[in-house]
Each structure stands twice: as C-alpha cells, then as structure tokens.
Amino acid sequence: MDIKSMTLLELTEYIEKLGYPKFRAKQIYDWCHVKLVRDVDEMKNLPKEIREGIKNDFVSLEVVEQLVSKVDGTNKFVFRLSDGNVIESVFMPYNHGNSVCISSQAGCRMGCKFCASTLMGLARNLTASEMLDQIYAISYIMGERVSNVVVMGTGEPLDNYDNLCQFIRILTNEDGLHISQRNITVSSCGLVPEIYRLADEEFTITFALSLHAPNDEKRKQLMPIANRYSIEEVLDACRYYFDKTGRRITFEYSLVAGENDTKEDAKELISLLKGFPCHINLIPVNPIKERTYKRADDNSVHKFKNLLEKNAINATIRRGMGKDIDAACGQLRKTYMESTKEGGLR
Q: Which of 32, 108, 189, 329 is an active site residue?
C-alpha cells in the first residue's frame, strides 16, 4: 500500500482495516498533503503505534542533487526513488507565482528525437504519490507555496494514465493543497485514445499537445508517435477535448533550425490550425550532445511568431529557464546517472 497515493476516502477505509479510529485518517492525510511532512515521525499527534504501522507505506523522495540557476533563480532537482531510480523536477519562480515542472515516469519510451528524457528508455511509471511528492518536497525545501504545476518533465503523462488522474484528483482536492485544476498543465506527444479518455474525465486542466511540425512527414522525422497517429487523428482528439471541457488547447512547437522553422512551415501551420481555439507555445529547442539538432536563431523564432500572429493565431515564445543548469528536459537526470555510474556524485 502507498498512503500518499490514496484519496481521503481510500485512506479512511485503509486505516479502519488496520483497526485504528476513523478520525486518524484525516490527521494522516493532513500531515501528508497539507503540512507536507517528510517523515512519519513528524506526525506528532499520532500515537507511536500508528506511526510505526504506516511507516512502510509512506513514500518520501530523497533529494540527491539540487542545482540553482545564477541567471533566473530556477532550481533543478534530482530525486531518488525507493527502488534506486532517479527523476528530475524543476522549480521556476515567476512574478505571478511559483511553478513546478514534474516528471510522470522514470525515463520515457516515446523516442522524440530532440529530447534527452528518452535516451535511456523507460524504467517504470511513477505512482501518484511519487508525482505529488516532487511538488511537496520542493515546496518544503524552498519554503514557498507552489501555485502552478506542469506535467512536462521526463515521461509521457498519458502513458501513465491512471496514476496521472489520481495525482490530479489528490492535488486539487480541497482537503489537500487544493491547487486549482486550471493551474495544472498536462503535456502529451499525442496518445490519441488517452486524449479522448482525459476529455471524458471532464477535468478543467490545460491540455498541451507536443505538435512540433506542420505535417505528418516532418512530424515522423521528429516524433516516432507520428507513425502511429496522424496529425488529423490527433487534432480530432484535441477538438473533442475542447468540445468536452471548453478549455483551449496549447500546442507546443519546438523550433529546430532548418527542420521546422521556415516561413513555409509557419504558413503550413497556419493553414492547419486556422480557426482552432488554441494557443501556440514556441520553444527554441535546447540542444543535447547526443543529437545534431540545433536551436533556431532568435530572428527565425520571432519571424515565425509574427507570421502566426498576423494570421490571428495566438503565439508566445517560451522563456528559457535555467539555461546554466542542464536546461534540456531529462538532461540533468541523464548527467547525474552517468556521473554516479562512473564513480559517485559530482
């Protein structure tokens, strides 16, 4: 069992099965999801017998590395899971509030060509508690409330569907941190059946699709998932999501020099998305040493954005955060794994 992955109702049933009074469940839930304790022994209003009884069912991630950007105050964390796997998370301070980007899997099997997360393959899915505890640990360490959460770190969230949904339910529950669903963004490379399932959950989260190309031919070169689902199929699923939830879709578009950043690419993208209730997040790609892809230059990025906007498509350029601390998604995790394999922490 894993008490931090349980809803309050599930935890109550579990505590009663152990023979403890029902009201203890609310106390435990409060310690886990409001006070964000890192150890069962911090639950001071619980008898020692109960603390000992739940100790093996309490998940708490271990911080093994923390890097702080001298440029913008971004903090990047490497966490060790109970089985020895490691994951990474990012704390990003903004004027409008603090954001945390979390991982949903240890590794990834989607194989996107410009992403460091997938280079070592997929180790396993994260539990709901392991997703939650990235936020809880960072909030505890930083001593600051987190107001926005993006599930855009290592892994494909919809490839870990059930745990993702449980994570959302607990994170947004009024008995826990009670983060608004509207302040949660889930990004996917485009698992079509799961997009339909997510729409039917009727969450009010923001859904972000990793599009990255204006046509199937180019998308297949960048993203293996495009060999399974065409852009037409993915966009149909996104339209269903909008119709079901009323939430505008965000399309993520990583700009790779010479691959998908030309004027012709922009025109094709405009034709593809004209009239679609969406926002395009342009992302100058972070180069990784294992790939030959290069970051689109600033001039190309701004020309691309301006052309979209002239054709009534909302677009922004993602602000690069933590450029001096292994900025690319999955890069710090990979660097850490390589350094420890070769003989200990850096």
A: 329
How far, in Å, CA of 291 to CA of 220, rounded?
16
Of 31-35, 291-295, 302-306, 339-343, the one with minimum mean pLDDT is 339-343
User: What pLDDT, on the 0 to 100 scale, is given for residue 345?
Assistant: 41
- DSSP 8-state secondary structure symbol assigned to residue 324: T
Q: Tens digits of per-residue pLDDT, 202-230?
A: 899 999 999 999 999 999 999 999 999 99
Give the distance from CA 235 to its chain's centroid. Answer: 21
Tokens in use for 10?
């599930």
pTM of the shown model: 0.91
Give dist(CA 4, CA 233) in Å, integer.
Answer: 36
Q: Among 289, 293, 295, 282, which Cα is nearest to 331's?
A: 289
329 catalytic residue (yes or no)? yes
Active-site option among 88, 130, 156, 259 = 88
Instruction: Please give the Cα distance from 80 to 62 (Å, whole number).
Output: 5
Axis-axis angle for helices 231-245, 192-201 (nearest 10): 0
